[in-house]
Here is the input.
Amino acid sequence: MNDGANRDTTKRSARERLQAERERQKAKDKRRRTLVVSAAVVGVLGLAAVVGLIAANTGKGGPSAKGGPLVAPSGATGKDALAIQTGKAEAPSTLTVWEDFRCPACKAFETNYRDTVHELEAKGLLKVEYHLVTLIDGNMGGSGSLKSANAAACAQDAATFAPYHDLLFENQPEETNDAYGKNAKLLELAAKVDGLDTPDFRKCVEDGTHDSWVKKSQDAFRTGKFRGTPTVLLDGKDIFADQANPLTPQKLKEKVEAAGKGGAGGGAKASGAPASPQPSSSASASASASASASASRSGSPAAGRSAAPSRPASATRPSASGQGAADHSGMPVNH
Here is the structure.
């Protein structure tokens, strides 16, 4: 009897120990699950905090930054106030220019057309609406397109946009050199423009006051499905659309002057149907020389395109607008 009782007691004791061990294991597993869940929650919250910190600091870095209030420069015009206008508002003809201060073809356009454009503006025949974009930042990396565009908008606040705009193109670094990504360089150039290098201008440049405005302009460029920079429209018509017969500075002058007189050349604005430009004997000698110089710098021949922007070395890259391969003048590249 005693042996049987002892065996029963031993079995019961073993079952109780096993049950107790199981309970301890369950408790241990529960604590482990709790720790794992807690760690996961902490990790998610930490990631959210990092993302929040990145978001809070956008607008201070590269062109993908999204933060900061949208502040249009003084006197900005057009849809969503995304254009900076030069010339007289009542001028009968309008030149719309989408350009990037890092874009070599934009410099070629400015070099070839600048004197003609300024002459027509001075006569009250032409106004120009500049849209500043960041295409090269997107293609090459860096922030020079964004920062130089912001600085130009700051110059607009100081009523010195035109001379600073021209100076930026005259001193444009190589496309692969992001020199304009340094505010010090932009301020150095500003010192060459009378009345521009002021505390207000410096603060505007350093703070990136118009960065979000520039980014919205780039978004508008992408939405507009333009193929590259510069995109130049005379009264809504792309002046380089006809690659065999692009609008030279001389022909631009003839068309704008004719529009000012109400002549046949002004049909683009008056009737809504652009008149086909007639070839002139030649572009000005200075335009040809400038184009040749620009072409040699970009590694492209100037023959046959003396007044049109030259193709830069990066022409074979797709544009940031996502519309396929095109050079910076908006002309397709043959692969």
In short: Residues 79 and 318 are 27 Å apart (CA to CA).
